[in-house]
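Side project, low priority. Logging it here so it doesn't get lost.
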Amino acid sequence: MEKKPERKGLGRGLSALMSDVNLGPATEAAPRRPDTRLAVEKLRANPLQPRKDFEPEALKALADSIRQKGVIQPLIVRPVGDYYEIVAGERRWRAAQMAQAHDVPVVIRELDDTEVLEIAIIENIQREDLNAIEEALGLRQLMDRFGHTQEKIAEALSKSRSHIANLLRLLTLPTEVQSFVREGNISAGHARALIGTPDPEAMARKIVAQGLSVRETERLVRESGGGKPGKASSGRGAAKDSDTRALEADLSAHLGMEVQIDIAGGQAGALMVRFKSLDDLDRLCQALSTVPAEMG
């Protein structure tokens, strides 16, 4: 009977979970040390896994690699009854079955459902083939489900806070524009240039139709007066300064909703938050109700 692994999962921070998943390239000279090897039939897929689709061609390529070199990066699993549930590494497990491998290396962890979901989201964020919208949605899940701040996520991912904020701002764009990014019709750079423009959908369709570069898109936005200092903005009065627009972008990224700040004159003004569903409204109400008393 195998020795029960030491309980290491609970109470750890995001950085510790990140290092556990650690999907960086492993080398044959220094592979991650597994706890043991388990037969592929002893493993089960994670029902909490947010990723449901696995590209057949990519799986086949991984299976070919496994036939030649084996599974270098161990799977993370947790014991559940008479079998082990995959916490991270389902793609490797599926490819190992295609390669007719008998067993795979594993790292066994005692984790609760919350940690399992958190690690599954982290694993997805680390995928190389992830588009910017999918990555932003993963980051948003880490913030909404687990209360992680942009600063904490940036530190764990070894990214700048501005990088995290810029990704999250993409989620304030209309669904059609986000779909263009998902499908590869426009890049994240194109999409960022459209944030704050009066009609981002029309602008995105123009980018696709004319095959505009990011620089050409930025010039087009400036010339149209869409969301840039020094131009009238949506016919709503004086142009906003860069500080106001930066604040709008930060609030939009934090809430996951479009935020508009209108300065009427002097120090007075109005802040408007656009929500797309009642769930968004509920989330906004919760965010407002948790403002510390000293800020109220």
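Brief comment: The CA atoms of residues 7 and 110 lie 5 Å apart.
Revisit when time allows.
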